[in-house]
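Late entry, evening session. Most of the bench is empty. Finally got around to the prediction I had been postponing all week. Sequence below, unchanged from the version circulated by S.P.
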Amino acid sequence: MPGLLIYNASAGVAEKFPPTQLLGRLPAGTQLYEFAEGDDAAQLARRAIEDGVEWIAVAGGDGTVEAVASALVDSPIPLGIIPCGTYNNFARGLNLPADPLEAAHVISGGVVRAIDAGVVNGRLFFECVGIGLDAALFPLGEEIKSGGFAKWIELSRRAIAYPRQTFDLKFDTPIRDALVRNGLDAARLDRRWRQSGATTVRLHALIITVSNGPFYGMNFAVAPDARPDSGVLTVTIFKRWSKLDLWWHYFSIRFGRRVYTPRLIVLTVQKLKIDGPSRLHAHADGIALKEWPLDFTIRAGALGVFS
């Protein structure tokens, strides 16, 4: 069994690219599974591995792609990504072709690269973990994406009422060594960050994100310099931001249109713990996290992807 294509017809643009058309661009002998409502994509992938599949491709959105990817982590089976969803953050972060037919052709090329998988409390993620305001609003954002425009009023109300939260961060290295960019001038940044060997800090912020790739949500380039094969996670801290600042920032980074972010604090780590005096809203690739506190690690090079 050389390869398997999992085709999700309910994904954003999948109906424009029928499976017969995609199979024509994939290696001869590729098997087809048409994903149906109620199917478990990760379970399908595990079953295919047991059946002796040599690679698995997914034509679908980020949810289906990432479910299959989670089943392939730490296995020798590479993943092919044919982006057919609404935003396709995973494929976009890997610089794969946006056109599904061209993406299928990439799989036929047979070139595989190793990328990382983020881990939070034992759960894999490939895009981003958001903690704070964005996680509190994420469910409403999904409803708006699905056509619930009346939810905009409720989203605005919650955003206005949401206060800055207290975060306790513990890094695996001195903070001064983890800093990539300090968006606050040196005189305003806590001395422990700049001069000491401190590995812990308490701060107040609206949002903290921990990213394995540059994009999440509606193609928000929240970590434009993050690379999924870098071996590190990118921590982005919105420390001194007003709600209006934050709204304009997210509007500007949608689809990666503008990545200049002078007031962000950005760090890179391999391990991180986020805690605080109270449990905060958090999501991993759009799925709500119920656990608290949050422990992060990275599995470097754990997934093979055609690229």
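Two things to note before I forget:
The CA atoms of residues 176 and 194 lie 5 Å apart.
The chain has two domains: 4-110, 123-300.
Will write this up properly tomorrow.
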